[in-house]
Amino acid sequence: MGRIHFLDVTNRDGVQTARTGLSKFGKTMVNFYLGKLGVAQSEAGFPFLFHEEPYLRAQVALSEAGAFGQLRLSGWCRAVTEDVERSSKLGLAHYNLSISTSDQMLQGKFQGRLDRDAVIRETVAAVRAAKQGGARTVGVNAEDGSRTDDRFLIEFALAAKEAGADRLRYCDTIGGDTPARIGERFATLAGATGMPVETHCHNDLGMAVANSVSGALGGLAAGQDVWVNTCVNGIGERSGNADLLSCILALRHGFGIPAGAQVADPIDLAWARRFAAWAGYALGQPLPLNQPGVGGNAFAHESGIHADGALKDHRNYELYDEHTLGPFPDDWHARPGRAVLTGEYGGKAGFRHVLEGLGIEVTDEDLTFQLVQLCNAGTGRPLTDDELRLIAGYPRQLALLYPGLLG
Q1: pLDDT tens, position by position, 99-146
Q2: Residue 392 and residue 226: Cα distance in Å, rounded?
Q3: Element (H, E) at 188
Q4: Where are the beta strands (DSSP E) in 242-327?
Q5: The pTM is what?
Q6: C-beta atoms surrounding 37 within 10 Å
Q7: Contact criterion met (CB below 8 Å) for 110 and 100
Q8: Which among 173, 238, 244, 277 is least surrounded, fewest beta carbons within 10 Å?
Q9: For 139-195, how does the pLDDT look when each residue is reduced to its tens digit (9 = 90+)?
C-alpha cells in the first residue's frame, strides 16, 4: 500500500480567499508553522510575479538555513511554457502546473481557444520546460477534474507522465464531488496511470475533508502514494478548501481507516493550536467555536450527561486527547494590563524589553530591530511571539523580503 503526504496550499489557494489576505511576512509564517507541523510541501502561486520574487527568494534562503525544517517549497503555475520558464530562475525545486480539462471549461472558459488536444500539447510542453529548468518534481493539475471524464483524465495524465510529470492533481474545483464517487475515481486513475493522484477539494457542499480522505483511500487501494491538498483552518475561495488539521485527525482517528493507511509526513500536532490561532489572528478570521480540534468548544461539555461522563473519563465523550494539539498561545502583545510592546513606531528600549522578556537571543540587533518595524508595518497588527522569534533567528534571510530597504 502507498503512503499519504500533505501538500498545503494556504499560500496559494488560501490567500486567494476573498475579503482577506496575508502579507509576505505572514506567508512566511505559514511556512514556518507548516515546517513545525511536519507537512511535506507548501505551495506558492504565480512565482514569477514581480511582487512574489523577493518573497520567494527569502523563502528559499530561509529553507536553506533550516527555518522550515524539512518542508519542501513549490510553485504553482499555469501550464504555459513562458510562465514556467520565468519561474525557473527563483530556485524552486517543485512545481504544480495547472490547466482546465473539463468540457465545461473548454467551452465556457477557453471558449474554443483550446480543445482537448491543445490542452495535452500545452501541458506536455510546460512539463518539459519545468524539468529542463531543474525541477525535481512536477505535478500536473486537472482543473475541474471532477467534471472531466475518466478517459480524458487518463489520457492527459499519461501524456504528462511520458513528458516527465510525477503526479496528477485531481481538482474538485467547484466542490461537487461526493466521498463514494471520488474514492472510486482515485482508484481508477491511480490504477490506470501508475501515478500518485493528489486531492484538491473545495468545500461548497461541506464535504472537502470527507472527499479528501475518501480520495486518498482510493489511491492507496490502487497501490499508489497519495497527496492531500489542504489549507489552514479550511480557508480558501468561496466556502474554502479541505482543512489541514481535520484531514490529519480524520486519517488518524476516523473509524474504518485501513490499518495500512499511513501518513508518511512526520506530523507533530503539538503545533496545531498555535498555528490555527495565529492564522485566525493574522487573517482576521477568528476560529469558529466548533472548529475541529482547535475551536473554543472542541473539548467543552455542558449537558449533564456529557459533563458527567467526561469527568469520569474524558474518552467517554472525546475522540482523542486534546493535549496532543499543544497549548494555545499566550502572546506578549495580548497580555492584559500594563504592557510595553515593540513594532513599527517603537524604539530600541521597547524592542529590547520585549525580546529580553521572551528570552529571545538577538545576534544582529540593528537589522532585527528594522525587521520588526517593517514586518509590523506590513501586517498592520502587533507581532506574535513566534513571529518575533523567527525574525530574531533569521534576520539576514528575512531581509530579502524587503530589497533596497535594508543595508
Answers
A1: 999 999 999 999 889 999 999 999 999 999 999 999 999 999 999 999
A2: 37
A3: helix 179-193
A4: 262-263
A5: 0.97
A6: 26
A7: yes
A8: 238
A9: 999 999 999 999 999 999 999 999 999 999 999 999 999 999 999 999 999 999 999
